[in-house]
Amino acid sequence: MEEQIQLILMDLIDRPVKISRETIDPERVRELAESIRESGLLQPVILRSQNGRFEMVAGDRRYLAHKLLGLKEIKAIVKELDDRETVVIRGIENLQRENLTPSEEGRVYLALKEEGNMSMSEIARKTGKAFATIRRYLNLVQQPDDVRLAIDRKIISLLTLETLQEIDDPEAFKYHFEMAAANGITEKVARLWVDDYFKTKAGEFYSNSNNPPPGNIEGELKPSYVTCEVCQGPCEVKKIRNILVCPECGKKVKGSQVVKS
């Protein structure tokens, strides 16, 4: 049975209390508004009735585009939904958005888990996402802001972060993460850093067998590798040239003058 499309007054619609996206790109909303002006609304929004008014379930950007155009009504499908069903529909719609950041995706899974009271298996079944993917993004959304922003801005990859998280001392992790964010390293370089960390930790333990191993790494311990900006592979710090290329890649850069730093 086809769901009935209604015209609902814009003034009767309330946006969600929790907006799942950190930012709504005004330019995207403007582009959508122009499309609606030219071709009309192709996909109605989904609402649920709440105390004589309507709450937005899916279609928040379409609603904002209508407001930008100064329209008084919007095409909508009104459904009788409980809170859990609303969270599920919102979550699935958000996962279908373009340019969703890793943190935003993680918050969708977190909302399904906490507000929707869904297990990881249920989330995977509803969204079609792999169990391991959901777990990775849930891990990300629980990280401090500076860590999440480094991933969202593509300064480092999620895989690089996960590699660095193998470092079991918070101060050591913080030091290596800040170095990673400053240099934009790859997962290969992160793996070398982590291996160096554990070798150093083991060496400290065995050289001080009568004492417990130290709880953190002091500032003088520095990773031996950074990322080559051409091939994205690891390169020893002492071989770095002024544009962060490894020696082999330096030869391939047309017209470049490789100067030792």
How would you portray this structure in words?
The protein is an alpha/beta fold and 261 residues long. The protein has 4 domains: 1-81, Alpha-Beta Complex (Conserved hypothetical protein from pyrococcus furiosus pfu- 392566-001, ParB domain), CATH 3.90.1530.10; 84-142, Arc Repressor Mutant, subunit A (Orthogonal Bundle), CATH 1.10.10.2830; 153-222; 228-261, no CATH class. Helices cover 48% and strands 12% of the residues. It is built from 11 helices and 7 strands. It has helices at residues 26-39, 60-69, 83-95, 102-114, 120-127, 131-141, 145-152, 158-164, 170-183, 187-207, 247-252; strands at residues 6-9, 13-14, 45-50, 53-58, 73-79, 225-227, 234-236. It has a 5-stranded mixed β-sheet with strand order 1-5-3-4-2. A two-stranded antiparallel sheet has the order 6-7. A hairpin with a 2-residue loop joins strand 3 and strand 4. The longest helix is centred in the last third of the chain and has 21 residues, at 187-207. The radius of gyration is 25 Å and the shape is elongated. The termini are far apart.
